[in-house]
Amino acid sequence: MRVPSDEIPQADNLIDVIRTIIAVSQGSRTFQQIANSIGKVERQGRYYRKAAEIVGMIATPNRNQSILTPLGQSFVQNNPTLTNPALLQGVLNSRIFQRIIPYLESKGNAGVSRHEFETFLNNTADLGAATMAPRRISTVISWLVDLGIIIVQNSRYILSTQTINQRVQNIEFDNPDEPLLPNPNDLNEYTTVQQRSSAAQDTIVSYRNSAALERADNAHRDLVNLTSERIRNAGALPKFNQLIDLATHIGNTDYIFEMKSTTANNEKSQIRAGLSQLYEYRYLQNKPNAKLVLVIENPLSAREVWRQDYLEQDRDVYLVWDGNNQLYGNDRTRNDLNFLGLIP
Fold first, then answer.
1. Domain check: are 202 and 326 in the same one?
2. 196 and 148 co-located in one domain
3. What pLDDT, on a 0 to 100 scale, did the predictor assign at position 241?
4. C-beta atoms surrounding 212 within 10 Å
């Protein structure tokens, strides 16, 4: 599935995208008013309004009447500049950049040439008419450079995970039908994930509602934050969507994490739920070789401690637990998941 052309910006000056957001906050509603506010012709007013919509800063619910989104309001109220984390968050939440990041991630420190990058964009996205494609490609590259997402060395584009991790805690994927851990060279994978997500739509809605409730729990948030920090410290990018708490790619291995707050009264049901969710998420994401990790709030009780062997030996699911803001695991798990810095 290629990214539609209307989801790809063609407004290469990111400063003017910021000025567009500010203009809307100050009362500019139509693309004509936006164009006048940022010193552009009306056609460019449309382009810059669309760019601000793509990054989730403004919305146009009524014909030619734009307003700020909650993200846009937060951005304007808190130092609306290139270094504001909300801007990077908005860019990384857009589908085209969620295709680009795994592609660059897979290339490591070798990076890619401009020709290789343009070839990837042409394969993964509908860039529109021949006259528009160069503008869209230039816009994407300009944004990546201006935000520090890529470093240009010897005419090659190299992903800066450090910049992303310094400004954004986790990369959010808004659409559950977008792969979190794609093989960027295989467009069929995007189609497979979309088809599986579509077939499981009712289940996804149920899981999404359940996940929203769980993520409001302080213990659940603590587990996510603790694990995410370890992933970032390993130089990798933690990602999540409406269902999956965390996923990442380290070395040559994909990992999917499910967090569960547990007590002595609910540990059995929570572990069962987490186990089934991990298997289903791996299937929906089409990652049959991904390592599955269940992270729970407390050590297993004496009556349930047998489940650790069941999970790890029979189900091949790693079990990790929290203890005073430290993560624990057995010898095998500590060895295989050494990036988590587990304690015996």
1. yes
2. no
3. 94
4. 10
- Show the tokens assigned to 185: 């060279």
Cα–Cα distance, 279 to 275 (Å, whole number): 7
320, 311 Cβ separation under 8 angstroms: no
- Strand bridging mode 253-260 / 246-250: antiparallel
Name 152's bridge partners. Answer: 157
H runs (alpha helix) in 179-298: 187-199, 201-215, 218-233, 267-284
Tokens 């990837």 found at: 120
Give the residue from 234, 237, 81, 233 showing the smallest Cα distance to 172: 237
Helix then strand count (H, E) for the chain reads: 15, 12
Task: State whether 211 and 307 are in the same domain.
Answer: yes
Q: Does residue 87 lie in a domain region?
A: no
Mean pLDDT of all residues belonging to the chain: 94
Alpha-carbon distance of 327 to 298, in angstroms, equals 10
Q: What are the phi and psi torsion angles at 67 (to 5°)?
A: -140, 160
How many percent of the chain have pLDDT more than 70?
A: 100
User: Token match 């470093």: residue?
Assistant: 151
pLDDT bin (cut points 50, 70, 90) of residue 212 is confident
Which pLDDT does position 314 carry in this prediction?
A: 96
Domain hosting 38: range is: 5-80
- What CATH number should be reported for the domain holding residue 134? 1.10.10
Q: Residue 322 corresponds to which amino acid? A: D
Residue 134 has pLDDT above 80, yes or no: yes
Of the residues 112, 143, 169, the one at which a domain ends:
169
Give the start-end residues of each E strand in the chain: 58-62, 65-68, 112-113, 150-153, 156-159, 171-172, 239-240, 246-250, 253-260, 291-296, 317-322, 327-328
Rounded-to-integer distance, Cα 316 and Cα 59, Å: 45
The answer on 333 and 194 residing in a single domain is: yes
208 and 157 within one domain: no
Residues 180 and 98: beta-carbon distance below 8 Å? no
Which of 80, 106, 138 lies at the terminal end of a domain, its last residue?
Answer: 80
Q: Confirm whether 332 is domain-assigned.
A: yes
